[in-house]
C-alpha cells in the first residue's frame, strides 16, 4: 500500500508529513549531533549523509513488506522547519508487527512533541495500517524515550543487557510494546 494519500497526519500542534529533499539542512542540524547519534547506535550524520537520508525518505511511502519503513517529518502546524521525526518499520507483515521510533531535535525537547507525534503515528499504525503489535527499542539511559513509551501506555517487555556496542561503549536496551487491543483506539486521541 502506498500511504501518500493518507498523509499528512495532524495533531493540535503538529503535522507529520513525508520528508522532502529540502529537509536535509534541518535533518543535519540534529542528526549530526553526537548527543543524538549516541542513542541511535551510529555515528553522527555528515551533511552528505543527511542529504541522502532526506532523499531516500522522500522517495519511500510504501508499506507492505518486511523491512518497509515509513519516516515522517515532525513539524509545527503553524511554522516551517523540522522538530524531529517519527518512524515506523514493518518488522513482520505476516504477524502485523511494527517498530516505532522517534528523534527530536534537542532544541525542541521537553515540550511533549515526541509523545504527541508518537501517539499520532501509533494510532495511524493500529487504526489505518492494521498493525497488531507495536514495539520500541531504546537505550536504557534514554530516559526521555522511556517516558514517551510509558505515556503511550506501552509496557516494558524486556531489558537486554549490554546487547549492542556503540563505539567503545556497551549499550543496554529496553523493549516496550503494546497491542492494538491495548491502545489502538486511544493512540490517536
Automatic annotation (TrEMBL):
Check the record and name the SUPFAM superfamilies matching this protein: Acyl-CoA N-acyltransferases (Nat)
Q: What GO molecular-function term can you cite, just one?
A: acyltransferase activity, transferring groups other than amino-acyl groups
Q: Which residues form the N-acetyltransferase domain?
A: 14-181
Pfam families the UniProt entry points to? Acetyltransf_3 (PF13302)
Looking up InterPro entries in the UniProt record yields: Acyl_CoA_acyltransferase, GNAT_dom, N-acetyltransferase
Q: Which UniProt keywords apply?
A: Transferase
Keyword Transferase applies: yes
Stored PANTHER family? GNAT FAMILY, PUTATIVE (AFU_ORTHOLOGUE AFUA_3G00765)-RELATED-RELATED, N-ACETYLTRANSFERASE DOMAIN-CONTAINING PROTEIN
**Name recorded for this polypeptide:** GNAT family N-acetyltransferase
